[in-house]
Design goal:
The complex is a heterodimer of chains A (about 500) and B (about 110). Chain A is an all-alpha fold and about 500 residues long. Chain A has a domain of about 200 residues. Helices cover about 75% and strands about 0% of the residues of chain A. The longest helix of chain A has about 30 residues. Chain A is globular and about 70 Å long. In chain B, about 65% of the residues lie in helices and about 0% in strands. Chain B is built from three helices and no strands. In chain B, helix 1 runs antiparallel to helix 2 and helix 2 runs antiparallel to helix 3. Classes of the chains: A mainly alpha (about 500), B mainly alpha (about 110).
Chain lengths: ~500, ~110
């Protein structure tokens, strides 16, 4: 069957934004009146998103980069959406997590009133993230980024208690500042190149060559997207915001939002539009390493389980940025692989913490103990997640960390490689703490009455841990060639991006 | 000019203790960016980019940044509404707008 000639596949790209946006509208309209509508409908929506992102992988493999012209205007005048292998890699990651998280929320969100509001905001956030990934236009990227951010501000405040509101306010102030920096950067780029299309911009910039404005713009983008990605000097909002949100949202925020808005956007702009220079590469590496170390050290001292996971996210984001920042093919491959793995196991761990909160009503590690005997599924899946994130073979985290360290050695960054190994041991230390305090040891009297969580929550945790265990298989040459390596090529090709995009328009 | 405004906005966000003043600071910074965009598209003695019959426009300002800013103003509206709503809820819970007194989270 010829996939590329089907009308559905040719118009696949707008669906990534249209499905979540449309279902958000329908859920907000009907969710209140029809009981159970929001649950079923959101799950159908995220499932169809997952299927079309898998389809997009086939499409890219079959016919290369696909460009969709919005409204029929020809780029660079009109807005275009771009589907290449990096895009479809990110889409699969995002929509996989989103689907599992919606399954999980069916039972979990029973604790809150107004479930349909939750689903509306959730789907809006999903639309924003997918939009950031598929767009090929600078200002469009900003708009989608704002859609995702605004709904995440609201979701962080979803519990409307003291802590949630405070965290959300902090997050909003930082987020708005970040957006202003990004917009200012876009303004400078527009005044320099008088175009907003990323491919066209990259072509014009290559003609202009190196100058100070470009450097200033990179600083602005680094601040803006660095804030969204929670790299260390800009990380202050994350440990407040992520734990305060309901658990499925923490999983989304930590698992994919900081990657889609932060790491993906940084990588796309620096590699494909501005062009990677030695300076920006070393800035990335240094920032990544600082985040790695500081996030790990701060995580060690936490007593709140979700706060500990949030700090650990900072540390893992450090790994990803460091690996991608090296700019070598192996480094980028390792970074993207770690990005995928981190999305899986961090969402798994946040869902576990949600289950613990659901069953016991506390997030304080000191009040837990012996939970595995009462909640076997949560206990063992969190064991899998912890072992995977701290890099114990044969779990997926081991392979990606190994690759990152190998890439650092290959690029002759021995100090960074040593730090990466040390932080990996640190990671093991604080996850052992979680395991020991929460799941092993004596069962407290106050916790005698707890039960395992409902079926849907178990289901998504089990699926995620299975992916964790077999994630390493993605490195098998046949699979790797089709999934990871193709995505890596996009970034390695750098500013050739322009030729590829503009070439495929004609 | 817009850099002065932008700096004033950031100063407000960083230094002020009152939630409402921080929000005003955000507003100022946002509008500084908007103004910057308009200046990017401005040409000396340009006129509004409106096409009409029997008129030949020679010196037109760039309409694209204006369109972008229109979008950004709408986004800014949504953000401001949300942040003010959260500030009101914070006031209900804590009974104060002073950020030094709103400190439940440690870290």
């Amino acid at each position: 069957m010829n996939l590329a000639s089907l009308p559905v596949t040719r118009n696949l790209l707008p669906l990534f934004v249209a499905i979540p946006l449309g279902s958000a509208f329908l859920v907000s309209l009907l969710g209140k009146r029809v009981k159970g509508f929001s649950d079923t409908f959101s799950n159908v929506a995220t499932f169809s998103l997952l299927s079309i992102s898998l389809l997009s992988l086939l499409l890219v493999k079959h016919s290369g980069t696909v460009v969709y012209k919005v409204g029929g205007w020809i780029p660079p005048i009109g807005i275009c959406m771009v589907l290449d292998s990096l895009t479809s890699f990110m889409l699969i990651t995002i929509n996989l997590i989103a689907f599992l998280v919606t399954i999980y929320s069916i039972s979990y969100m029973e604790r809150y009133t107004a479930k349909w509001k939750f689903y509306t905001l959730f789907l809006l956030m999903l639309a924003g993230m997918n939009g950031v990934i598929v767009t090929g236009d600078m200002f469009n990227l900003f708009v989608f980024l704002e859609i995702a951010s605004i709904s995440s501000y609201a979701l962080v405040a979803f519990g409307v208690e003291h802590e949630e509101l405070e965290a959300s306010f902090k997050y909003m102030v930082m987020g708005i500042l970040a957006s202003s920096f990004i917009l200012l950067g876009i303004g400078f780029l527009y005044s320099l190149t008088s175009t907003l299309n990323m491919a066209d911009m990259s072509r014009t910039l290559a003609k202009i060559g190196d100058n100070r404005t470009v450097f200033f713009v990179s600083v602005l983008f680094l601040m803006g997207f660095g804030l969204k990605a929670a790299l260390v000097p800009f990380h202050a909002w994350l440990p407040d915001a992520h734990p305060s949100a309901p658990a499925p949202i923490s999983a989304m925020l930590s698992g994919v939002l900081i990657k889609a808005l932060g790491v993906y956007a940084l990588a796309r702009i620096f590699f494909n539009v501005l062009g990677m220079t030695a300076t920006s590469s070393s800035i990335f590496m240094v920032l990544g390493t600082i985040s790695m170390v500081l996030g790990g050290l701060l995580a060690l001292g936490q007593e709140d389980i979700k706060r500990l996971f949030a700090y650990s996210s900072i540390s893992q984001i450090g790994y990803i940025v460091f690996a991608v920042g090296m700019g070598t093919p192996l480094g980028i491959l390792a970074g993207l692989f770690h990005l995928f793995n981190h999305a899986i196991f961090k969402s798994l761990l946040f869902l576990n913490s949600g289950s613990i909160e659901y069953a016991t009503g506390t997030r304080d590690l000191r009040k837990m103990g012996g939970l595995t005997s009462k909640m076997p599924v949560t206990g063992y899946s969190s064991l899998v997640g912890s072992m995977s994130i701290s890099g114990i073979p044969p779990f997926s985290g081991f392979w990606s960390k190994l690759l990152i360290i190998l890439a650092a050695i290959q690029a002759k960054h021995f100090v960074f490689a040593a730090i990466a190994v040390l932080v990996s041991i640190l990671t093991l230390a604080y996850y052992l703490k979680v395991q020991r305090l929460a799941f092993f040891g004596e069962l407290r009297d106050s916790l005698k009455g707890i039960k395992e969580v409902p079926l849907t929550m178990k289901l998504s945790m089990i699926i995620l841990s299975i992916i964790c265990i077999f994630g390493g298989l993605l490195l098998i040459p046949g699979v790797q060639k089709n999934f990871l390596s193709l995505a890596t090529e996009v970034l390695v090709n750098g500013t050739n991006y322009a030729q590829i995009i503009l070439g495929s328009i004609k | 000019m817009c850099f002065i405004l932008f700096s004033i906005g950031i100063y407000c966000i960083l230094v002020k203790r009152n939630l409402i003043k921080i929000i005003i600071g955000i507003g100022i910074a946002e509008y500084a960016v908007n103004l910057f965009f308009i200046l990017v598209g401005y040409r000396a003695q340009g006129r509004a980019p409106i096409l009409a019959k029997q008129q030949v426009i020679q010196n037109m300002v760039d309409p694209l940044p204006q369109a972008l800013i229109l979008t950004n103003i709408v986004i800014g509206l949504a953000v401001t509404v949300l942040i003010v709503a959260i500030a009101i809820r914070i006031y209900e819970k804590y009974g104060t707008f002073d950020i030094t007194k709103i400190r439940r989270l440690r870290g």
